[in-house]
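Input (structure):
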């Protein structure tokens, strides 16, 4: 678990300023106030009569406690949910498939990519994977190492990379800090790019390309397309 005391945050902020990036422009991305991540999850469960829900990273069960479904599994090494493990340990032992999986654990590009790839192995046909925190508005919101309390991490880089794959259909819903919506099917809007190392992308790259990178859909278009 990350150490978030004042001195660590300050040290990380200085480190990022000196060695990572100094780009200070901010994006204005508005999110509807009355439709949150758990509303989209519940909408999909009700619409498709899904039976099994998996959440990776549960914290205080802000989402987990609101979901109504036959079977729910919540994985978190620290708090919330009902399985006290890291996602890697969980997937290593897991034998169960799920209709819908919500990824909201460690918000680092490599871990998110791993969580998505592991989730794909246990996703039922016609299921959905949702990924939280895909649309940061500033460099600070997506910085690794972390130096602010409210933070998205660099989840967005995993979405950009996976949008280049032919067998995954991905868009980002402009709700609740950005929710990535992934289906295991032919990619209808493949991202063409010559990026070699997705981890090395900077906030500046995202700032100028985020609409193309993330394939953003409004709240209204999200509901029309799921
Ligand atoms: C942003 S919070 C989750 C919030 C919650 N899903 C919600 O909807 O409000 C992130 C959680 O991920 C957990 N976490 C950190 N590393 C993890 C890992 N490797 N595997 C699973 N969960 C992890 C943290 O303990 C923390 O509770």
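Output (sequence):
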């Amino acid at each position: 678990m990350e150490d978030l005391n004042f001195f660590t945050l300050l040290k990380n902020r200085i480190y990022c300023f000196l060695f990572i990036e100094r780009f200070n422009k901010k994006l204005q991305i508005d999110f509807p106030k009355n439709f949150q991540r758990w509303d989209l999850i519940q909408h999909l469960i009700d619409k498709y009569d899904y039976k099994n829900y998996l959440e990776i990273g549960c914290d205080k069960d802000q989402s987990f406690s609101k979901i109504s479904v036959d079977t729910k599994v919540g994985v978190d090494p620290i708090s919330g949910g009902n399985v006290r493990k890291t996602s890697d340990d969980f997937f290593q032992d897991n034998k169960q498939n799920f209709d819908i999986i919500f990824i909201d654990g460690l918000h680092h590009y490599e871990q998110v990519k791993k969580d998505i790839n592991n989730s794909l192995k246990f996703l039922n046909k016609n299921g959905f994977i949702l990924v939280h925190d895909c649309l940061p508005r500033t460099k600070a919101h997506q910085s690794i190492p972390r130096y602010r309390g409210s933070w998205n991490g660099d989840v967005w880089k995993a979405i950009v990379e996976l949008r280049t794959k032919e067998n995954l259909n991905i868009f980002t819903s402009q709700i609740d800090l950005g929710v990535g919506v992934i289906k295991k099917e032919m990619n209808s809007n493949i991202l063409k790019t010559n990026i070699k190392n997705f981890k090395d992308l900077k906030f500046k790259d995202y700032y100028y390309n985020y609409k193309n990178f993330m394939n953003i859909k409004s709240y209204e278009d999200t509901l029309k397309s799921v």
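Notes: Residues 37-225 form a domain with the Rossmann fold fold (CATH 3.40.50.150). The longest strand covers residues 123-131.
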